[in-house]
Amino acid sequence: MGFLDALLGRSKPVRPDLDQLFALPSAAVTLQAAAGFEPTGLGSVCFASVEGGAFSRIQEDARALLDGSVEFSQDAYGYSWLLARHPAEDVAGLVNDLHAVNTSLEESGFGPQLLCSLVGFRDERQRPLALVYLYKRGTFYPFAPTTDAGEKRDNPLELQVRAMLGDDLTIEQDLSRWFPVWGAPGL
What we know:
Layout: H1 3-7, H2 24-35, E1 38-47, H3 52-65, E2 70-74, E3 80-85, H4 91-110, E4 114-122, E5 128-134, E6 139-143, H5 155-165
Antiparallel strand pairs: 1-3, 1-4, 2-3, 4-5, 5-6
């Protein structure tokens, strides 16, 4: 960062701390024991859309890395999503795959485009819950959409999960950064 950047308040983008993802398997155990939420075996990575040949190369690399068990989609906001599947009990394997994809994207120069990763959970009442990792903050937050019609969140559940996982994950303290990820693959 140069003198002019410092003077004008600009800063370099923060490099994602991808190793934070490795805390998810222990958090999954805590979440299952304390609240009955079980992993679904689904996890996804969201990144700002990349155009043309670069996006095709990302898809090919991810499919090769994960033996083809990956799906790509775009949401209504134009963000790209990569969905990985594993057996529900294999959270560590899912996290390894998400970490590998993220590392590959970062090493290919797409680190600034990484937005978030999430791992999905459900309880016995089939309520969805995701643990979302924000790359640029290095923190997690719970996202619990309601199963009612419309885009509503179960805020009490999100706060309960935050309290449960405070020892397992670095939880985002600024609640205004707990962005909704409506319709995210893996939820």
